[in-house]
Amino acid sequence: MRIIGCDLHAGQQTVAMLDTTTGELVNMTLLHEGNNVREFYSTLPGPVRVGIEATGSMQWFVNLMEELGIECLVGHPAEVRAAEPRKQKHDRRDADLILKLLAENRFPAIWLPSKELQDLRSLLRHRHQWVRMRTRIQNALQAIALANGLRRGPSLWSQTGQHTIASLPLAPHTAYRRSELQAVYAKFEGEIEKLNQRVEEQACGRAGARLLMTHPGVGPITALATEVFLGDPARFADSKALASYVGMIPREYSSGGRQRLGGLSKQGNPLLRFLWGEAGMHAVRRDPELKRFYHRKLIQKGLGKARVAVARKLGIRMWIMLRDQIEYNEFCRRGQKQQKSGDACAGMPETRNGAKSHRPVD
Q: Which of 156, 215, 276, 354 has the fewest CB within 10 Å, making it most exposed?
C-alpha cells in the first residue's frame, strides 16, 4: 500500500509518499498546471491512501481522488498542527507530518458532506450573500431619507415609500446616487425572491426539512440550512456536542479550580448561527414553552444572552427532530410525557420540578 501525505496549496502541492511494502520514502513537489496532478496519481498502483488538511480550495482535489478511486482523508488543520511540537514549519515538514499521522493511524479525519449537500450549501450561501448586499443598499437609502427629513422606518420599502423618496428634491449627484440605489434595490428584490422560491422548493422536497418546518417559527430557509449544514445528525453524541460544533458555547479559561467563561466561541458555521437566532425570535412568539424560557433568561441574563439561549435551544430541538425523524407535535408529546414522569427532557425549557437538563430525548 502507498500512503501519501499531501500539503495542498492553490498552485502546488508537496507530497511525501511511503511504500509500506518496500519502506521506500519519496518527497516531491507537484505544480497544479495542466494534467500533472492527474497523471501522477493515476499511474500509482493501488491501494493508495492520501491525507490532506482541510482548505478552502481543496474540493477539486477531493473530487479528483474520488474519480480515480483513491481513498482521500481530510484532516482538521488545528489538530494536525497540534501533533507537531517543533516550531519549524514548511511544506516538506507538513507533508511528512501528515504522512506520519496516516501511517500511525492518528490522522484526525473530519466528516465531509456529499456533493448534493455541498450544492445546497452553495445555494444558501448565495442567497445570504445577496441579502447582505441588499441590506447595505437599504442602509444607504435610509441614510439619504433621514438626511432629508424623511422618516418612514420600515415603510420606506413599500411602494409608497419608494415613490416618496424618489420625489425628494436633491442635489444632482445625490439624486443620481438615490436613483441608482433604488434601481439596484429593485433588482436585488427580484433576485432574492427567485432564490427564496428555489430554497422553498428544495426544502419541500427533502423529508428532513419538512419535519423541521412543522416547528413554529422555522421556515424553509432555516429548515434546509439546518439539515444540510448539520448533515448526519447521528454524528453528534449529545446536545453539547451539537452546540460546540455550531459555536454556541462560551470560551473557557479555567485553571486551578477557578472557572472563567468568555463570549461565544463562534467556531462553527456563522450562517447557521444567524438563522437559528432569527428563527428563535419567531419561535418565541408561537411556542409557549420557548416564550417562558426566553422571558426567564431575559430577566436573568439580559437581551443578548437570552437570544443566544433561545437560538441554542431551538437548534437542539431541530437536531432531535432530525435524529429521531419526528414532527413538532411528537416532540412536544415526548417532552410532556417526560415532564410528567419527572425525567429530564432536552430541548424543553425545564422539567416539572424546575430542574435543568441537557439530556436528549430517547
A: 354
Q: Model's pTM, two decimal places?
A: 0.85
Q: What is the mean pLDDT of the chain?
A: 90
**pLDDT for 190 beyond 60:** yes
Q: Is the pLDDT of residue 345 over 80?
A: no
Question: Is residue 218 pLDDT above 70, yes or no?
Answer: yes
Beta-sheet pairing, 71-75 with 2-8: unpaired
* Inter-axis angle of helices 270-286 and 115-147, nearest 10: 70
Rounded to whole angstroms, the Cα distance separating 66 from 70 reads 6
Cell numbers placing 64: 479528483
pLDDT attached to residue 268: 87
Rounded distance between C-alpha atoms, residue 289 and residue 129, angstroms: 33
Residues 234 and 231: their CA atoms lie apart, in Å, by 9
- How far is CA 219 from each of CA 215, 283, 344, rounded to the nearest angstrom? 9, 10, 28
Set of cell numbers at residue 257? 479550580
Give one DSSP letter per residue of 277-342, joined into a string.
HHHHHHHHHH-HHHHHHHHHHHHHH-HHHHHHHHHHHHHHHHHHHHHHT--HHHHHHHHHHHHHHT
